[in-house]
């Protein structure tokens, strides 16, 4: 038996004061991550008095370019931009089940197929509510959601562990290099990041190599890399210009600059240095409509006269930490693949959960 999406949920229409929000509780399309990867803190709050409210348990979906698959289940109350749809479950509908219904790739494909606009397609709210979903009683809903949520819980745990491990590596950096920013020299005296090579999504050849451009997540995937892992990447343009990330696998650096293991044996040292100075890098952005960070911005940053034996020692100490982070990231990719394989089969009823005791 099937029903329409509007039969199991509604759009929340409540408003709230922006003055009551923080960068942790405000959600916009910019701080929602693609490929169902959740959220990060907003860079700023909107300059309006009020905005759309959401409540814990609601499902937030970016309504701009649905193919980015930006979705998050709220863990607290807050507010969001008008370009974010806020779904709230109706009575006798499990909120976790609703989340997984909306996480299904079929939903995003439907949202794209019924969207309006070409350059920046937006989902049509009325059409979205006509999306067909299987109807189950609430106990079956909970069983389906429980199976998928167990996987997501493990992914979240790995993310928490990785954050803790990185904080340890950064704390070790602070202890070993307390005066690193003393302006005796510049980073460019030792190393200058290389500029990546532009690659549009339409020109990418299908593969599993992340293409790292100006966003927080890969813009697409390609069949070859232009870096050697480990590699640190600095986003070059857009709202996140200057964002520093570390990759334990080879990537294609596109709208970004990078330092990889072919350029330095101490990639982890340079990553820690730049990550500790993330805000300083953001402040160096040039351009208003389209902010940019170039390799010369990184090269001009002041540092002390480095003791390269200490740099090598730091690399030796933290390499096992960053390798564990990489291991957890790899496991998360496998878990996400398993979840995304099971999800449509569970939602459609192809996999029967009626006999499962949860």
Automatic annotation (TrEMBL):
<dbReference type="InterPro" id="IPR044946">
    <property type="entry name" value="Restrct_endonuc_typeI_TRD_sf"/>
</dbReference>
<protein>
    <recommendedName>
        <fullName>Type I restriction modification DNA specificity domain-containing protein</fullName>
    </recommendedName>
</protein>
<feature type="domain" description="Type I restriction modification DNA specificity">
    <location>
        <begin position="3"/>
        <end position="167"/>
    </location>
</feature>
<dbReference type="InterPro" id="IPR052021">
    <property type="entry name" value="Type-I_RS_S_subunit"/>
</dbReference>
<dbReference type="Pfam" id="PF01420">
    <property type="entry name" value="Methylase_S"/>
</dbReference>
<keyword id="KW-0680">Restriction system</keyword>
<dbReference type="GO" id="GO:0003677">
    <property type="term" value="F:DNA binding"/>
</dbReference>
<dbReference type="GO" id="GO:0009307">
    <property type="term" value="P:DNA restriction-modification system"/>
</dbReference>
<keyword id="KW-0238">DNA-binding</keyword>
<comment type="similarity">
    <text>Belongs to the type-I restriction system S methylase family.</text>
</comment>
<dbReference type="InterPro" id="IPR000055">
    <property type="entry name" value="Restrct_endonuc_typeI_TRD"/>
</dbReference>
């Amino acid at each position: 038996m099937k029903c329409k999406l509007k039969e199991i949920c509604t759009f929340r229409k409540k408003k709230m004061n922006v003055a009551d929000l923080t960068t942790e509780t405000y959600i916009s399309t910019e701080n929602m991550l693609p490929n169902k990867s959740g959220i990060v803190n907003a860079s700023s709050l909107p300059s309006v008095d009020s905005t759309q409210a959401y409540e814990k348990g609601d499902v937030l979906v970016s309504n701009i370019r649905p193919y980015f698959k930006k979705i998050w289940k709220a863990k607290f109350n807050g507010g969001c931009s008008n370009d974010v749809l806020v779904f709230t479950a109706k009575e006798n509908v499990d909120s976790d089940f609703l989340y997984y219904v909306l996480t299904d790739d079929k939903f995003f494909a439907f949202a794209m197929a019924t969207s309006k606009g070409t350059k920046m397609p937006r989902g049509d709210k009325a059409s979205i509510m006509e999306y067909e979903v299987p109807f189950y009683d609430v106990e079956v809903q909970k069983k389906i959601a429980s199976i998928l949520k167990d996987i997501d819980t493990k992914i979240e745990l790995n993310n928490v562990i990785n954050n803790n491990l990185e904080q340890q590596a950064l704390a070790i950096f602070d202890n070993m290099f307390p005066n690193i920013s003393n302006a005796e020299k510049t980073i460019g005296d030792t190393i200058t990041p290389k500029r990546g090579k532009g690659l549009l999504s339409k020109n990418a050849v299908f593969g599993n190599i992340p293409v790292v451009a100006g966003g927080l997540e890969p813009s697409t995937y390609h069949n070859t890399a232009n870096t050697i892992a480990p590699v640190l990447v600095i986003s070059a343009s857009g709202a996140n210009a200057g964002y520093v990330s570390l990759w334990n696998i080879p990537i294609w650096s596109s709208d970004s600059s990078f330092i990889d293991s072919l350029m330095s044996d101490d990639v982890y040292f340079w990553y820690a240095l730049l990550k500790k100075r993330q805000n300083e890098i953001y402040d160096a952005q040039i351009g208003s409509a389209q902010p940019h960070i170039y390799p010369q911005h990184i090269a001009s940053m002041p540092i002390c006269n480095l003791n390269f034996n200490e740099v090598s020692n730091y690399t030796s100490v933290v390499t096992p930490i960053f390798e564990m982070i990489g291991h957890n990231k790899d496991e998360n990719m496998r878990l996400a693949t398993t979840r995304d394989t099971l999800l449509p089969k569970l939602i459609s009823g192809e996999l029967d959960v009626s006999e499962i005791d949860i």
